[in-house]
Recover the amino acids of this structure.
């Protein structure tokens, strides 16, 4: 086979696509590791940086899973308190810090639902995206969103995190992969499975619909 | 479930088109169930945190953080302080131990010892410091002290059969430097000066007797020693002027007189003129009369180096050539066996007629 510039260019392109980019792996992670280490040693400024880096993402995740604004804020605060308590025992495993933090948030949300029992709570309809919905539309939308939320909460932790990051936080596959320490292909596969599972729970499969109504967490 | 998105990559591409990242738009209802499911997730209401809420959450987080870290921080600070004190204490103890172990060894070291260069360096540093402080008296005293040390070292070596001319030269140099200082005219310093000269004289004499060095070297050192002795003789202190005048009236010393001294059985031509020059000039009869030592000491002009007057003030080293005192003198030598004034036969207190010691003549 003759090596021509076109062949070299094609090989280069293949390598570029196949190899994970810096953004995929997260260039900021070493800096975060330094802040974690300092925070573990009692550095308040380092802890403040970690907080500022993750507060919005964690809150969106919590708010997506808990429809009530006040409760989501409270649970978000609990997530960071739990982070502070668990930080001394944190040891870098190669996975991003955000993934660890999302798992804490998932556990706190689960803890919230355990405390509050049934999920049939009144939906906070003030923040619906339709600016002027009719009362009927509001009710229908609220019911639908509540079903989505319930279905979401029945997925696995990993599936919940990926779907929230992808469609609530509107992050790209690469960003999700970087945050969770996974490959883009793995994220796509997980996303695919999660959407299938959620779709079944939401009534594409009729047998699942009854299960969502009035179910307990 | 739509069969067309059985491939995760195809679904991902479609989702990127319908629900692009970093966008807030939501797509209308589509025939694709999975896309509709993703779109329903995108419609979940998510409130943004207000700055006040962010601050409140942060405050709660730091309360937990402080509750967890402040006790540790305090105890850590206490540990750090304790460790610092321990380090300081250990360093001080080690330094003190080192000082008390090494310092005596260093000060007692002799040429050839590994510690001897340290000793000389310390002395030089001390001298430099004294010079830098501008204290002439202290510098002069230190120079005399150093000269005395070199003299003692050379004497010790000579007694071991080793002669080191550099020690003599160093001592003479120190003596000359000390004499250049005005403070060296004090009695105490002049005594020390004279003592050092005596020891050096003794060293040279021993070296000559034992033939530890070439005669030329010994002669040169003796000459240097003689030169070092002159400034003292030329500038006697005021309180000894009377003695000095008296000394000038004395007849000049002769070699015969020097040879007649019993404590130098083997005087050499190089040593005796130097060592005896002042002695006989000032205290011609002092060779046989210890009291003359006391008389000469205050003025201590050049004299103390040789005669018997040096014995009371001399270093207690054994010196067979200088040790013999009056008791060793031959009986016929009246000058040598002269009785001290307080012990003459005319002294009633010591005579046989002494009432206290006699046969009771004065006793009731």
């Amino acid at each position: 086979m003759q090596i021509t510039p076109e062949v070299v260019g094609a090989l280069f392109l293949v390598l570029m696509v196949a190899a994970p980019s810096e953004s995929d792996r997260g260039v900021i992670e070493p800096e975060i590791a330094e802040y974690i280490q300092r925070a573990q040693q009692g550095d308040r400024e380092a802890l403040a940086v970690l907080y500022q880096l993750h507060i919005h993402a964690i809150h969106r995740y919590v708010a997506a899973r808990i429809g009530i604004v006040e409760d989501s804020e409270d649970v978000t605060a609990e997530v960071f308190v739990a982070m502070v308590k668990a930080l001394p025992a944190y040891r870098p495993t190669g996975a991003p810090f955000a993934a660890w933090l999302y798992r804490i948030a998932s556990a706190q949300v689960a803890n919230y639902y355990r405390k509050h029992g049934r999920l049939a709570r009144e939906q906070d309809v003030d923040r619906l995206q339709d600016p002027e919905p009719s009362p009927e539309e509001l009710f229908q939308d609220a019911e639908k969103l509540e079903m989505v939320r319930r279905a979401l909460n029945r997925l696995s932790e990993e599936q919940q995190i990926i779907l929230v990051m992808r469609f609530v936080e509107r992050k790209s596959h690469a960003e999700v992969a970087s945050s969770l320490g996974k490959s883009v292909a793995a994220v796509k596969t997980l996303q695919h499975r999660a959407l299938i599972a959620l779709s079944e729970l939401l009534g594409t499969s009729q047998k699942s619909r009854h299960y969502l109504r009035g179910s307990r967490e | 479930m739509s069969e067309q998105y059985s491939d995760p990559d195809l679904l991902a591409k479609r989702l990127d088109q319908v629900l692009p990242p970093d966008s807030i738009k939501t797509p209308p209802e589509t025939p694709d169930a999975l896309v509709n499911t993703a779109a329903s997730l995108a419609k979940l209401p998510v409130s943004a945190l207000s700055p006040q809420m962010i601050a409140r959450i942060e405050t709660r987080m730091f309360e937990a953080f402080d509750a967890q870290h402040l006790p540790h921080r305090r105890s850590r600070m206490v540990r750090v302080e304790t460790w610092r004190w321990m380090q300081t204490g250990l360093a001080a103890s080690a330094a003190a131990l080192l000082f008390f172990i090494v310092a005596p060894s260093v000060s007692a070291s002799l040429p050839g010892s590994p510690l001897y260069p340290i000793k000389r360096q310390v002395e030089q540093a001390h001298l430099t410091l004294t010079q830098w402080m501008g204290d002439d008296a202290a510098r002069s005293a230190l120079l005399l002290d150093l000269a005395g040390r070199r003299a003692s070292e050379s004497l010790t070596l000579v007694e071991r059969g080793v002669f080191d001319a550099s020690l003599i030269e160093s001592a003479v140099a120190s003596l000359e430097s000390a004499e250049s200082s005005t403070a060296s005219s004090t009695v105490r310093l002049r005594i020390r000066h004279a003592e050092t000269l005596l020891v050096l004289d003794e060293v040279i004499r021993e070296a000559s007797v034992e033939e530890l060095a070439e005669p030329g070297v010994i002669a040169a050192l003796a000459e240097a020693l003689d030169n070092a002795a002159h400034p003292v003789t030329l500038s006697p202190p005021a309180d000894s002027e009377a003695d000095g005048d008296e000394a000038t009236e004395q007849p000049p010393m002769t070699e015969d007189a020097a040879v007649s001294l019993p404590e130098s059985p083997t005087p050499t031509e190089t040593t005796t003129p130097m060592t005896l020059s002042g002695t006989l000039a000032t205290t011609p009869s002092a060779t046989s009369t210890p009291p003359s030592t006391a008389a000469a000491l205050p003025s201590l002009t050049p004299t103390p180096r040789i005669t018997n007057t040096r014995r009371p003030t001399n270093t207690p080293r054994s010196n067979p050539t200088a040790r013999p005192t009056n008791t060793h003198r031959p009986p016929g030598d009246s000058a040598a066996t002269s009785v001290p004034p307080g012990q003459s036969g005319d002294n009633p207190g010591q005579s046989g007629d002494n009432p206290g010691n006699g046969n009771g003549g004065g006793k009731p």
Observations:
- The two ends of chain B are 153 Å apart (CA to CA).
- The interface with chain A takes residues 1, 5, 8-9, 11-12, 15-16, 19-24, 26, 33-34, 36-49, 53-54, 56-58, 60-62, 64-65, 68-69, 72-73 of chain B (CB under 8 Å).
- DSSP finds 13 helices and no strands in chain B.
